[in-house]
Amino acid sequence: MNLAGRIEDELDRLRAEDRFRELPGIGGRSGRFIHSGGRRLLNLSSNDYLGIGDDRSFLKSYLDTGDETSGRYAMTSSSSRLLTGNHEQYGEIEEILASWYQRQGALVFNSGYHANTGILPALSGRHDLILSDRLNHASIIDGCRIAEAPFRRYRHLDYDHLESLLKEAADSARQVFIVTESVFSMDGDCADLDRLCELRDRYGAFLIVDEAHGAGTFGQTGQGLCEASGCTGSIDMIVGTFGKAFASVGAYGIMDDLFRDYLVNTMRPFIFTTALPPVVLGWSRRALEKQMSMDSQRRHLQSLAERLRRALAAEGFAVQGESQIVPVIMGSNDKALLAAVRLQQEGFFVMAVRPPTVPENTARIRISLRADLSWDDISRIPEILKA
Ligand SMILES: Cc1ncc(COP(=O)(O)O)c(C=O)c1O
């Protein structure tokens, strides 16, 4: 069979299994609403958890101060950071990040995907071992696949399993890396960072924590679950993203200078890509600084999520998690699709998440809350789903 025929078959199979994906048409956004299919829907599918990205006056205040002649609002950096792309705004934001986390160094990347596919392949070699939570994000899995080091997955949040793998590796691996998300993107549950630090210490491992969904939503100043758990200073490398609660694009790593220097010299998705444009770096810095004082919004967000989880559980739904991400597990793909369509008909922009993004038979709708919502906005969801 030729290439086109094989691909046609594969697409037919995806359609038959309700797994065929199409790009949704998004018309625009206004505050917590999104325009899709000619309708205005409450946006429960974005990662703009604090609503900063949809805060028009905040955006206007950034653009109004713009002076195009300074180069600080340039729309492109035109080359890699190691050539002419390392605009002074990189240094500024990295200094802010390092002193905020009270750590030696910070390094900004183009995205969380770049960070996760670059860090482990740079740091590890074939004599090492990577231990990764089974439900880690695809970008972490891809980083594990690219790395020369072998990798094994421990059962989700099962630290006894992790410990047994650490014991097994004690005499054979040169260095073990443990990698986890803090707040899991599709499950909304949280890693036990204290326990992970304890295991890291006991077995001399190197701990990498991806705070993509924890930064901005946990911790008094929004550093993430590491701040909420009081272990910011002891995680070997923290990865955060600007594309979620920080309402921009890009990512950062928090680490000791030794590792920063090494990544600058060896990390391929850092070296071989065009740097972020100055206009984005300036905006990231603004949003980062703004969110530091949004603790009351963070607390509102988490209590809203807790209330929704309780209301869904009271209607008999399998809800899990302990964060602003509220997944409702429907099981089959068609059920999850139907639930999403039903909620969309009722004015809620909620989408179905299906395999391979989540494990087989755990298709779900993923409700992603934001701090600019009130209980009245979402209180009908459990009864709609029940119906
Ligand atoms: C846990 C996690 N890490 C990394 C990423 C990738 O980040 P980015 O969207 O900045 O590429 C995502 C989301 O997309 C994520 O959910």
Describe the protein's architecture and organization.
The chain folds into two domains: 18-50 and 295-386, Aspartate Aminotransferase, domain 1, CATH 3.90.1150.10; 68-291, Type I PLP-dependent aspartate aminotransferase-like (Major domain) (Aspartate Aminotransferase, domain 2, 3-Layer(aba) Sandwich), CATH 3.40.640. The protein has 15 helices and 14 strands. It has helices spanning 3-16, 56-64, 88-101, 112-123, 138-146, 159-169, 193-203, 225-228, 257-266, 268-271, 278-291, 295-314, 333-345, 375-378, 381-386; strands at residues 26-30, 33-36, 39-43, 105-109, 129-133, 151-154, 176-181, 206-210, 237-241, 251-255, 325-331, 348-349, 351-353, 363-368. The strands form three sheets. Strands 4-10-9-8-7-5-6 form a seven-stranded mixed beta sheet, with helices on both faces. A four-stranded mixed beta sheet has the order 1-2-3-12. It has a three-stranded antiparallel beta sheet with strand order 11-14-13, with helices on one face. It is globular and about 55 Å long. The relative contact order is 0.15. The model has no long low-confidence stretch (mean pLDDT 96). Bound molecules: pyridoxal-5'-phosphate. Pyridoxal-5'-phosphate binds next to α4. Pyridoxal-5'-phosphate (PLP) is lined by residues 111-113, 116, 137, 139, 181, 185, 210, 212-213, 241, 243, 251.
